[in-house]
Task: inverse folding
């Protein structure tokens, strides 16, 4: 699913690194976002997010719900202005899949030239992913309240420090997040984190320069580059 900060384009590179250490551990994502990593993993999986509408969308898709194929501006703005009157899965779908940059209820995504049908593209994209969502335990809540079974592998893709905030994470505290990761590691879990930077006690185990679409950094008409990194807690680095 298209999502702000999606890891879909690097999933095939970072997954082998994490899966090599997984063994029979549960796979846990406290910030499941667009579910573009967890949908490529087998076994026991938990995907948590504090965006209730998106979690409702995943659960509805698991139950066979299909989003509308055609979405015009009238429907989009009607739902935007009356969210409480519509199913949460529809709100979650329109609010992320039919907006530019996948910003939560950003500007309506349309092609005035008539060359692209963004509503059909969104529908096909979500329905292609739908079979891979079956079997995932989707949970709505704060990552700090997530109940994690013993001996799990935890993959975190939190709101990046210094970039545009995600819906529901306007007050995200990065310092608290890193401390939670340390505690998870001390409890016996394996913890990996996607970020641009990390504290010294987290080792960078993978990196790659990509277009920084997560924060829409544009200069002279071109996207700036950023170095995506995968970190693992390693106190011996300090």
Result:
């Amino acid at each position: 699913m298209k999502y702000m900060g999606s890891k879909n384009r690097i999933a095939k590179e970072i997954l082998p690194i994490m899966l090599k250490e997984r063994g029979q551990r549960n796979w846990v994502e406290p910030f499941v976002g667009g579910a573009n990593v967890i949908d490529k993993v087998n076994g026991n999986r938990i995907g948590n997010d504090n965006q209730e509408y998106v979690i409702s969308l995943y659960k509805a898709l698991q139950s066979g719900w299909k989003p509308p194929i055609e979405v015009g501006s009238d429907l989009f703005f009607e739902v935007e202005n009356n969210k409480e009157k519509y199913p949460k899965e529809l709100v979650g779908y329109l609010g992320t899949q039919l907006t530019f940059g996948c910003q939560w209820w950003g500007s309506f995504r349309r092609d005035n030239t008539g060359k692209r049908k963004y509503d059909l593209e969104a529908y096909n994209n979500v329905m292609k992913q739908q079979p891979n969502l079956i079997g995932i335990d989707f949970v709505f809540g704060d990552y700090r309240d997530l109940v994690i079974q013993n001996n799990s592998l935890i993959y975190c893709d939190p709101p990046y420090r210094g970039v545009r905030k995600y819906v529901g994470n306007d007050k995200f505290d990065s310092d608290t997040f890193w401390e939670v990761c340390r505690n998870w590691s001390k409890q016996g879990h394996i913890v990996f984190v996607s970020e641009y930077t990390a504290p010294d006690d987290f080792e960078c185990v993978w990196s790659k320069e990509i277009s920084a679409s997560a924060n829409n950094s544009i200069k002279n008409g071109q996207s700036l580059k950023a170095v995506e990194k995968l970190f693992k807690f390693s106190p011996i680095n300090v």
Q: What stands out?
A: The longest strand covers residues 202-211. The radius of gyration is 18 Å. The chain has two domains: 1-50+141-238, 51-135. DSSP finds six helices and nine strands in the chain.
